[in-house]
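Backbones bend. To wit:
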Amino acid sequence: MSELSCYEQLGVSENASFEEIQEARTRMSALHSGDRKQVDLIEAAYDEILMQRLRQRQEGKIKVPERIRFAEREVRTMPTAPPTPTKEAPAWLQGFLDTPSRSDIVWPAGGFFALSLLSLLQPASAPLALALGVGVGLYFLNRKEKKFGRALAITVVALLGGLLIGAPLATWLTSVGVLFPADGLAASFTFFVLWLVSSFLR
């Protein structure tokens, strides 16, 4: 089928627009809807014109308006500003930090508060209360990741840190007139450290 006969088959000129060619195809197909052979010739003519136009466009013989976009044409996107870096904790610290649920905060707080009251009201029981506090801290830490050795090491470090800071602090508080005994105050500070560790570390 020559190029001329394709256009003649659809009843359009060679410089017809794409819209005119589509309208002619629809009109001619409707006109010859009862004649299957004629409809096939119309479809073949339409396909041939499309192929001719595609070849001409690829060869640069047809100027395509800029408003028409083709899939093969690269879509240019506006450059976006790089995301602002957020300050995050170092990776080694993120491995230790936990985002606790309310129950992970409240239950240890209740246990350590009871032990703190016991050591403040009965200073002689402070060593026993500390031993129980170590058990409570160990239980809540081990419950998170089931790593007993790690939980034990963190609990012992928290106990020693709490006592090393709490003892001088308690001595100073009693010297300025706080009525509670130094042993009970040191134990209470240690319980606070153990609560922080068991709630917010893993």
